[in-house]
Amino acid sequence: MAGLYEKPSETYAKKRPRYPKEWFSMLAGLTAGHHRAWDAGCGSGQAAISMAEHYESVVATDVSEGQLRNAIAHPRVRYAHTPEHLTEDELVAMVGGEGSLDLIVVATSIHWFDIPLFYAVANRALKKPGGLLAVWGYNYEIHPFEEALHGQLYGALRPYQDPRARLAMERYRALPFPFEPVGVGAEGAPADVDIEVEMTLEDLAGFVMTGSVVTTAREKGAGEEMEAVVRDVMKRVEEEWGDAPTVPKKLAFKAFMLAGRPKC
């Protein structure tokens, strides 16, 4: 999946919505310690730097070197590249070793992982008791433009989508999550959480154009068809915008989250 985000990595870092600080305060309140945390599949690092407000050190890893080059620097965050060939033992060692982590976060990327391998690493690396894994995601369900973006746009581009991304489009309801619930969703029933942001029409278009489904459509030779669909959808969004396109508008990404502890 690294290739999906290599080319648009600089734009991607600028166009992703920021996660609410309240999420990280809530998760920090659920961990027994606040020494070490891991942002797995960190992308541009926006989750990692928020985790660093609550934990002494954060290791942030990604398979995409392009994303890491554009990640946000922070004195308590160490970024590391994770090539796809790394073994379970190597990954455990890279993130701090057995029983070393208070918190692991996967922000909008677990659907790209080798999930059984990742869960094996998480179970070994999390502290017992007291360690916590939290995963979340979002898709094109963006209020008040859900019908245009999730209905029309995603409906047209779905044939080009990587099958793994469907987990996110289906709100992680089919994501295996063999961890003890802590009141933030459970396997098959993620918690509904919103990400409220202010975006201009250009910001929203940038978000759409850096999504994996758009990148995959380009790679499969459907660039012209994809661009025509995006133009039609964004024209509809512009008509519904209400204000001048350059005036920021409050939008809500209808996100979803699961959090749990290793089973003893």
What would you say about this model in short?
By secondary structure, the protein is an alpha/beta fold.
Secondary structure topology:
Layout: H1 2-6, H2 9-15, H3 21-28, E1 36-40, H4 46-51, E2 57-62, H5 65-69, E3 77-81, H6 88-95, E4 103-107, H7 115-125, E5 132-137, E6 142-143, H8 146-157, H9 166-169, E7 180-181, E8 191-199, H10 201-209, H11 212-219, H12 223-241, E9 249-261
Parallel strand pairs: 1-2, 1-4, 2-3, 4-5
Antiparallel strand pairs: 5-9, 6-9, 7-9, 8-9
Helix pairs in contact: 6-7, 8-12, 10-12
Domain Methyltransferase: 39-130
Pfam families: Methyltransf_25
InterPro entries: Methyltransf_25 (IPR041698), SAM-dependent_MTases_sf (IPR029063)
Task: Explain the overall architecture.
Helix 4 links the parallel strand 1 and strand 2. Strands 1, 2, 3, 4, 5, 6, 7, 8 and 9 form a nine-stranded mixed beta sheet that branches. The chain has helices spanning 2-6, 9-15, 21-28, 46-51, 65-69, 88-95, 115-125, 146-157, 166-169, 201-209, 212-219, 223-241, and strands at 36-40, 57-62, 77-81, 103-107, 132-137, 142-143, 180-181, 191-199, 249-261. The radius of gyration is 18 Å and the shape is globular. The two termini are 32 Å apart. With 264 residues, the protein is α/β, with parallel strands linked by helices. InterPro entries: Methyltransf_25 (IPR041698), SAM-dependent_MTases_sf (IPR029063). This is Methyltransferase domain-containing protein.
Question: What pattern of helices and strands is seen along the backbone?
Answer: HHHEHEHEHEHEEHHEEHHHE
Shape: globular
How would you sum up the major sheet? 9 strands, mixed
How would you state the average pLDDT, rounded? Answer: 90
First and last CA, distance: 32 Å
Would you count the extended β strands for me? Answer: 9
Structural class computed from helices and strand pairing: alpha/beta
What share of residues is helical?
25-40%
- Percent strand equals 15-25%
Radius of gyration: 18 Å
- Separate helix tally: 12
Which segments are poorly predicted (pLDDT under 50) over 5 or more consecutive residues? Answer: 1-10
Organism: Urochloa decumbens
InterPro entries: Methyltransf_25, SAM-dependent_MTases_sf
Pfam family, one: Methyltransf_25
Protein name: Methyltransferase domain-containing protein
